[in-house]
Structures are given as C-alpha cells and as structure tokens.
Design brief:
This protein has about 250 residues and is α/β, with parallel strands linked by helices. It has 8 helices and 7 strands.
Length: about 250
C-alpha cells in the first residue's frame, strides 16, 4: 500500500461503491479520512465502521452540488483534522435517456453534480492546498470522459468537462505544488452501474463482452489506482487522465 501517514483526505460520495472502497484504502494506508454522503446518517455509519477497524475517519453529510456545501465540507475537515491534503471528487450521478427527450432540468442536474460540484470542492480545498504549497486532487471520471454513447449525452458531457477541469487546474496549480489528475474508471460492479443497467436495457454480460479483460472492475481495483495517484509514488503525474477500464477505450472492434 502507498504510505499516506499524516495525510488528510476528503472522499466525496464515499458511503458506497468506488468512493467507499477509496476512503477505506486511503485510511488503511494511513490517512485521516473524511467520509461524505448526502445524508449525515449514511456518512456516520461508514465512519463508525472505519473507526471500529482502528482507522481514522470523520463523517460529514453534505450535498456538494448545493450552494455553500463544498465550502462547509472543507471547513469541517479542517475543524476535525486540521487541514486537507487530498481531495477525491467521486460523487456523481448517471443519466440514461434519449437526447431529444432528456429534460433540460435533468441535464443541468447531471452537470451540477458531476462537474460543477467537483469544481466547487476543488476550489475550496485548493485554496488551503495552495497556501500550504502541496496537495493532490483526483477527479473520478469514466470511459465517457473520452467516448460517447447513445443516451448518455448529459453524463458524457459532464465527464468530458471533468477532464478539462483536471487539465486546466493541473496546469494552473501544478507550479504551486498541487497536482490534479483524473482517474477514469471503466464499468465497475457498483449499485450505480446496476441502476444504469436497469434503465439502459443492458447486462453485465454485455459489458464483459465489450471489455477486453472480459469483466467489470471491482471498486477495490479503482481505489488502488486512486491511492497510487495521491501518493508520492505518483509525484510526477499531473494534469492528465489515467484509465482503469480493462481496455474499454483502447478497443476499436465490435
């Protein structure tokens, strides 16, 4: 495991899925971790389980897409642990709908959660990191950060934008000691993907056939990549995207 002793990390959307696996992996690597969910009760339950296992964790319930909530999340992190060294922007929502039928309100909501909220969190945490001259921000993207697919117009637009956010912040803040990296996950065995399958009319077997490794990722596999990126082992990785997708974006067949 990477050595993250003494680091203070925020993982948004960390009550399940990739976020939960990432929060646990960072804590197991020595970091003090802020567990975040939209509800305080869900965040509390995860943080309590971490502490029962001897890990350092504190819960903050916050909907980071709402005005002022990103700033409150960071402020409560500083109050609990004294600073912030790592931010993992993991919270996100899916969207599966024909473009011509997609309500504008849903399009806006997807961008608010998947793109605007990561910027707000990065801005709030980044101010502290920049003042300290060090820090790492990871934006959790997707194969749709590079590709498109029918009925994914809002989701794909939001994830493409997230890579643009990564590249620009990494170029702007890198000289001041703050790295920004996208970790773009392939289809992963989470409740979010299960919901997308139900709405989109495709199956796990369909995804496995399309993936050169012939399976979905596990949340732990994505968490391992994120833990590497935020560690000093990845100290020269900045303003770019790493794909943990089993070869999905590299495969050009059908």
């Amino acid at each position: 495991m990477p050595n993250l002793q003494g680091r203070i990390a925020i993982v948004t959307g960390s009550s399940d899925g990739i976020g939960l696996a990432t929060a646990r992996r960072l804590a197991e690597s020595g970091a003090s971790v802020i567990v975040n969910s939209r509800t305080q009760a869900r965040a509390d339950a995860v943080a309590r389980a971490f502490r029962d296992d001897g890990l350092r964790a504190h819960a903050v319930g916050a909907d980071v897409s709402a005005d002022g909530e990103a700033e409150r999340l960071v402020a409560e992190t500083v109050a609990a642990f004294g600073g912030v060294d790592v931010l993992v922007n993991n919270a996100g929502v899916p969207s599966v709908a024909p473009a011509e039928a997609l309500p504008l309100a849903e399009f806006r909501r997807v961008l608010e959660v998947n793109l605007t909220a990561p910027f707000a969190c990065a801005q709030a945490a980044g101010r502290i990191m920049l003042a300290n001259g060090k820090g790492v921000i990871v934006n959790v993207g997707s194969v749709f950060s590079r590709l498109g697919m029918p009925q994914r117009v809002a989701y794909s637009a939001s994830k493409h934008g997230l890579d643009g956010l990564t590249q620009t912040l990494g170029a702007e803040w890198g000289p001041r000691g703050v790295r920004v990296v996208s970790v773009n996950a392939g289809y992963t065995a989470t409740a979010l993907v299960q919901g997308a399958m139900a709405r989109g009319g495709f199956s796990e077997d369909d995804l496995a056939r399309r993936t050169p490794l012939r399976r979905l990722a596990t949340p732990d596999e994505i968490a391992n990549v994120i833990a590497f990126v935020v560690s000093d082992d990845a100290s020269f990785v900045n303003a770019t995207a790493l794909y943990a997708d089993g070869g999905w974006t590299g495969y050009g067949g059908w």
